[in-house]
């Protein structure tokens, strides 16, 4: 995916995710509490079924994470990405599905209008309509789809309600330097959740389990919504020594 794409603010992307949930909930009012049923949304709103495949056979550099096959009506998730535990596999699969839902919701017109791309829902039995590549992770198409995925899997009102239920109030947690460093570490890389020890880290694990997302995704989303904030550093005292 190397096409130009319009800039979208986070608020606009979150609104699109909310619209998708609202459309789905009109006939299935089951999105009032976590986890968000992304597989059902994929099937009901876009008529695609998820499946695991070895995508290295369609892209020789083994860089494909997911691909949509229009003729098969199928979302293929790269099998080689799932050598870890079942719980991690499930949360990662849900993130990929939500990510692809972001492409379908935000970028559908690009695939149908760009002459270098196959029609998004054309009758194409042999080739995928599009492929998500690891190498494109910083491309605007991918960053927008990822932002959509986080907003869809962890809707702000739902996550704030879950936060309030866990901590007993709506206020953010003010973190000291050590705790903030730990949260940033979790948000930026895969971490063994057995190593989570602080109250903030335990809270991340609890909410990640409720929403069926990775602890990395949950930590990033809580930071984004400023439910975790860093304590202000004290100003250095002014010297009163006279020369």
Give the key terms.
243 residues; alpha/beta; 4-stranded mixed β-sheet
Give structural notes.
The protein is α/β, with parallel strands linked by helices and 243 residues long. The protein has two domains: 10-153, no CATH class; 157-230, no CATH class. The chain is built from nine helices and six strands; from the N terminus they run H-H-E-E-E-H-H-E-H-H-E-H-H-H-E. It has helices spanning 10-25, 38-46, 86-106, 108-113, 140-153, 156-167, 177-188, 199-211, 215-224, and strands spanning 49-53, 64-69, 74-78, 130-133, 173-175, 228-230. The longest helix has 21 residues, at 86-106. It is globular, with a radius of gyration of 20 Å. The model is unreliable at 113-125 (pLDDT under 50).
Please sum up the structure shown:
By secondary structure, this protein is of the alpha/beta class. The protein has helices at 10-25, 38-46, 86-106, 108-113, 140-153, 156-167, 177-188, 199-211, 215-224; strands spanning 49-53, 64-69, 74-78, 130-133, 173-175, 228-230. It has two domains: 10-153, no CATH class; 157-230, no CATH class.
């Amino acid at each position: 995916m190397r096409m130009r794409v319009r800039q979208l603010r986070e608020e606009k992307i979150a609104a699109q995710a909310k619209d998708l949930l609202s459309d789905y909930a009109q006939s299935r009012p089951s999105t009032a509490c976590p986890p968000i049923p992304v597989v059902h949304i994929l099937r009901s709103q876009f008529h695609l079924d998820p499946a695991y495949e070895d995508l290295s056979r369609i892209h020789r550099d083994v860089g494909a994470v997911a691909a949509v096959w229009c003729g098969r009506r199928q979302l293929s998730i790269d099998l080689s990405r799932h050598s870890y535990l079942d719980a991690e596999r499930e949360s990662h699969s849900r993130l990929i599905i939500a990510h692809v839902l972001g492409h379908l919701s935000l970028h559908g017109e690009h695939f149908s209008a760009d002459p270098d791309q196959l029609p998004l829902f054309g009758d194409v039995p042999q080739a995928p309509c599009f492929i998500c590549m690891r190498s494109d992770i910083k491309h605007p198409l991918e960053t927008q789809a990822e932002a959509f995925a986080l907003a869809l899997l962890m809707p702000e009102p739902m996550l704030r309600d879950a936060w309030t239920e866990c901590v007993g109030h709506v206020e953010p947690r003010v973190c000291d330097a050590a705790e903030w460093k730990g949260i940033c570490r979790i948000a930026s890389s895969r971490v063994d959740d057995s190593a989570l020890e602080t109250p903030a880290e335990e809270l991340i694990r609890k909410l990640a389990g409720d929403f069926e997302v990775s602890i990395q995704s949950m930590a990033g989303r809580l930071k984004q919504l400023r439910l975790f904030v860093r304590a202000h550093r004290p100003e250095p005292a002014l010297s009163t020594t006279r020369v």
